[in-house]
DNA sequence: CTTCTGACA
DNA sequence: TGTCAGTA
């Protein structure tokens, strides 16, 4: 599929799809006319990338773990540099902190709702 | 009409 | 990230 279709199906702007390619996160093939051609399976990958970016993981880190995203079991087999592991632990902790904060506010709102609209 | 590259905010 | 330019 062309970049426009992938953008429509993933919700990721064409501008970003080209940017992710520039960052080494995607490598679509090219049609005779120079247009980028994306594999159907890349829809998942784009979703994967978006999720990581939304989680605060920089494209540089995503690029390093991307080769293993398809098969996590091969992760440590290939690359497990101490630096990368340390970075991942850092982002994991940051994410964990955000999750806790969200859960806390969710519960606070639930309590408020229960008070104003008891059942 | 869609995509491409490069550039600027 | 958004958007504009000038093409193919």
Care to give the gist of this entry?
With 119 residues, the protein is mainly alpha-helical. The chain has one domain: Orthogonal Bundle (Multidrug-efflux Transporter Regulator, Chain: A, Domain 2), CATH 1.10.1660. The protein contains 6 helices and 2 strands.
Ends apart, CA distance between termini? 51 Å
The strand line-up of the biggest sheet is: 1-2
Low-confidence stretches: none
Distinct helical segment count: 6
Sheet-strand content, in percent, reads under 5%
Task: Compute the CA-based radius of gyration.
Answer: 19 Å
State the domain count. 1
Describe the overall structure.
It comes from Tenggerimyces flavus. Residues 1-68 form the HTH merR-type domain. InterPro entries: DNA-bd_dom_put_sf (IPR009061), MerR-type_HTH_dom (IPR000551), MerR_fam (IPR047057). This is MerR family transcriptional regulator. There is one protein chain. With 119 residues, this protein is mainly alpha-helical. It has one domain (3-116): Multidrug-efflux Transporter Regulator, Chain: A, Domain 2 (Orthogonal Bundle). The protein has six helices and two strands. The protein has a two-stranded antiparallel ribbon. Strand 1 and strand 2 form a beta hairpin. The longest helix has 35 residues, at 82-116. The model has no long low-confidence stretch (mean pLDDT 89). The protein binds a DNA duplex (9 and 8 nucleotides) through helix 2.
């Amino acid at each position: 599929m062309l970049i426009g279709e992938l953008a429509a199906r993933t919700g990721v702007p064409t501008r970003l799809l080209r940017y992710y390619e520039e960052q080494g996160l995607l490598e679509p093939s090219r049609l005779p006319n120079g247009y980028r051609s994306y594999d159907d399976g890349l829809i998942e990958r784009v979703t994967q990338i978006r999720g990581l970016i939304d989680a605060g993981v920089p494209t540089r880190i995503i690029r390093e773990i991307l080769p293993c995203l398809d098969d996590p079991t091969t992760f440590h087999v290939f690359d497990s540099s101490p630096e990368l592991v340390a970075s991942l632990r850092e982002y994991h902790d940051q994410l964990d902190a955000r999750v806790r904060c969200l859960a806390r506010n969710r519960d606070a709102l639930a309590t408020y709702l229960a008070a104003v609209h008891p059942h």
